[in-house]
Amino acid sequence: MRARPETLGTASGRSLPWRGLACALLLAAVTGCSSWGRGSAKPAPADLGVNVPTLGVRQVWTARIGSVAGLPLAVHAAGPVVTLASADGVLAAIDARTGGDLWRMALGESLSAGVGSDGKSVAVVSRNNALIVVDSGRERWRGALTAQVLTAPLVAGGRVFVLAADRSVAAYDAATGRRLWVLQRPGEPLVLRQAGVLLAVGDTLVAGLSGRLVGIDPDNGSLRWEAPLASARGSNDVERLVELVGRSSRVGDSVCVRSFQATVGAVGCVDTARGVVRWTQAASGAEGVDGDGDAIFGTESNGTVIAWRRSDGTRLWDSDRLKHRKLTAPLLLGRSVVVGDDTGWVHFLSRTDGAPLNRMATDGSGIAAAPTVAADTLVIVTRNGAVDGFRPD
Fold first, then answer.
1. How far is CA 326 from the centre of its chain?
2. Of 31-35, 150-154, 265-269, which range is least confident?
3. How confident is the model at residue 39 (pLDDT cuts 50, 70, 90)?
4. Percent of the chain clearing pLDDT 70 (strictly above)
5. Concatenated DSSP letters for 60-93?
6. Helix (H) or strand (E) run with residue 29 in it
7. Is the CB of residue 30 less than 8 Å from the CB of residue 5?
8. Do residues 382 and 369 lie in contact, with contact meaning Cβ atoms separated by under 8 Å?
9. pLDDT of residue 5
């Protein structure tokens, strides 16, 4: 599951073994795994107790996409259409109202990142570093990349933007595949094998490069501003690893993200109109955040769920009811904060205090992607490839 990355990678995409030094120095900050492999038991997940639903939720459809294990999947929603992919390269656009396919195709090769879409064109990246763009179930073009990609491409304004593992950002013409520009920044030699931050804010492309959120001119790749949320520290490459991880929360010019570090990470918000950090608060986790104009919500590496005031970062509440359950990034949905766990449960928590409102079971294989909403339907994807549609009352 994405909350427990199994490998590091070099900036060029080469994987390094995770156990040993990396586990002791880095993964311990995410899951407390430093004792694994020494005969010590992993922390027991919190007992869920009896489910006493105070929020009605019903499952309205189920579909399948194929296993997504090992793929840092981003489910894309536009209106009633949900676009997603399996690890072995099956792409599908599903009607969130019914769960039926609008189109489906098989690329015939494994994926490392996806999916990005503007509602028409769909972009993914294969494990052999090919950027592939599809329209309505038909491949339009593909082009070779020079580094591995773990973040879903961003499709916007007739272009496809790619954030690569070597900390480069590039733009491609969505119609032809011609590369328009590339921005290359130096960085630490290791990267977290997990999706990063890449989004559009007005006429600015916003990306996470190491511990900085940067604003880029989408027309020519020039840098408009940098906002440092975290800095590398430590005596070796593993300790110095710092990344901004998706998902992010945008409200107007405010973008809030999580930075992951081996020692201590953070959650913070940036004013993208001025390119300045509004606030940061220490936080330990490897999953992104979600929220609205009042609050943002995040899941910690130990399963604690936390809410912060968006304006100044004041902690509003925290809940350890799901401790050690390996949670996804949250989704704010009405009066609920929705998270999935590693055993396949979907939890609905009160946005005001984190109290449990309901929980729903899936196929038990673990929730593989952050919950997504489309057409008043909550869409959940499991590691084994079940796609379930739920509707809260």
1. 14
2. 31-35
3. low
4. 89
5. EEEEE----TT--B--EEETTEEEEE-TTSEEEE
6. helix 28-31
7. yes
8. no
9. 44
